[in-house]
Structure formats: structure tokens, C-alpha cells
Amino acid sequence: MDYRGIIALGEYILQGNQISYEDSLELTTVMTDDIPLLAAFANKIRQKFTGNEVDMCGLVSARSGMCSEDCKFCSQSVYHSTDAPVYDLRSTAEITHSAQKAQQEGAKRISIVTSGKGMDHDPDFQNIITAIESIMDKTDLKVCANLGTLTLAQAHALAASGIKRYAHNLETSKNFYPFVCTTHSYEERLATIQAAKTAGMELCTGGIIGMGESWQDRVDLAFSLRELDATSIPINILNPIKGTAFEDVTPPTPLDIIKSFAIFRFILPNKIIRPAGGRELNLRDMQGQLMLSGANGLIIGNYLTFSGRDSAADFQMVQDAGLVPAKF
What we know:
α1 runs parallel beside α3 and α4 packs parallel to α5 (125-138). The chain has helices at residues 3-14, 21-27, 35-50, 92-104, 125-138, 152-161, 186-198, 215-228, 254-267, 279-283, 287-290, 311-320; strands at 53-63, 109-114, 142-146, 165-167, 202-204, 207-209, 232-237, 272-275, 297-300, 324-325. The model has no long low-confidence stretch (mean pLDDT 95). 40% of the residues lie in helices and 14% in strands. With 328 residues, the protein is α/β, with parallel strands linked by helices. The radius of gyration is 19 Å and the shape is globular. The longest helix is centred in the first third of the chain and has 16 residues, at 35-50. It has a single domain (52-325), classed as Aldolase class I (TIM Barrel), CATH 3.20.20. Strands 1, 2, 3, 4, 5, 9 and 10 form a seven-stranded parallel beta sheet that branches.
């Protein structure tokens, strides 16, 4: 697709229309010298449909390591030998303190994350509920949960505790998923997402780019997210951690990352598209450009098993892009 096609599609979406699957695939053929134009239209689409606010979310790792699943990118898997920290569920006081620290650094939202496949028959589930209630009592944060697979009853329990948004990624397209994980199915992920929706929670559902998937796989992921009506869409960029099955995979270039985020915005004009893990490593000096390519959310602070950057730098980056942190 040349620059005229980008302009025509951008104007079409700005008029309130939905891009087709076929036109989305055509966008993936945009040449390198037209990526800035694609990004500029993605930025205009973001401005029209979501305004200039950026959803800033921190993470709290409540339990780490010894995961039974074989996700090829993950340093917490028992199938991999890495330096990832290993610890059982932290105390309510520790989890609450971490959330308070994130609030002091400027986060308005926090996601409580646990390692492991999920909560079915997990003895920690009730203690996690207690920690969530403590955070809600002692901070002003919006609290999300990222606990892996859920039963419908557990989804209702989380919603009753005050959780409004549940995080559970598809990771990639249905077609590429078997190359990423074999110990649980794509359908199991969809079942948890549906349970969260049925319980009345919003979805924080995205994936990872740069694992060897095709451009069509990225478009397929975006269309799955559109069909699920996910509210928040975290997009991680592969951090090829030594000791994981994907340690030798070459991540995408900064321009490919910008192109990917812009295409996601064309497909998902009114959603929160959130750069997440791997942006610091893979975008380097071009992180700010992502905020002008359709992004309107950020994971700030440290990630689960590797460091992010100073939160103040992210707030400055948002301000420099002419955007403002969401106040809720």
C-alpha cells in the first residue's frame, strides 16, 4: 500500500467507519518511508476516538516463578533455566506496600499478577482477594487482576471484591499460538476471558509481538481483540531472555514496532493500546515516537522479571508528546 492508500483508509476511519480485514492486511505492506505517515494517521485516530489521556498502570508481582506451563517466552516457566525470582505468594502487607509505592510514583491503576497457570484449586486465591481489598482500602488506585485461568465462580468473586478489569492475554493469533505454548490451549484462554466478561469485568487482553509470527498473525490478533471488545490492549515486544526457548529470536526493529502499533490503532480506534514489556529494550530512543503512533496507555515501573525505566521519564515522555496522564 502506498501513501494514497494510507490517507484514504485513515480518512475512512476518522469518518467513523471500521477497517476491513483485507484492508488491514494491505496496511502491513506499507513501505518503510511511509511508516511516519501511517503513524501520523494512527495518532489522529487516537485523538479523535480516545482524546489525549494516557492510562498509566503499574504492576505488582504477587507470586513469581515455578510456573507449570511451557510458554516459550517466559522466564518463570519450569521448562526454562533463568535468573527469574522465585517466591510464594507475598503477604497482604507486602503486596499493599508495593501498590502504595506505585501510587507514589504516579500510577492511577495497578495490576496484581501471579505466576502459574491459574486459580482453579489454587489455595492462594482467597489470600489474593484479601490483598486486593487491602489495596482498595489503603490507596486510591484502580485495581486490576492478572491471575491466569479462572472459573466462572472465581471471576464473580473477583468482581465482587471490586475488580473492574481482568488481564489475560491471548499472546498471539490462534494460528501461531501452538508455536508459543503447548501445555494449555488457546480455547482455555478464551474461556477465562469469557468468564471475566460474564462476571461483568472489562478485559485487559493483548499479546506479544516479535516471537516469529507473521504480519497476518498480528492482524489476526487485533481482529480477535476487536471481536472480544477488549477495553485495554497491552502489547508486549519480545524480550528474548537467556534460558528461555525464545532466547535466540531476533525482536522486531523500532520501525516495525511503530508500524505494528499504528495498525492496531487503525483496527481498534477507540481502545486503550498499551505499550508494555520490552519497549525500553527494543524501541530505545524511539519510545516517544510510539506515543505519536496511536498508543494511549503505558505499563510504568518495573515488569515481572526485568526492570523498566524510571516512572518520571515516562510521565515526561507523555507530556512531551502533548498528552496527559488519565485521572479517572
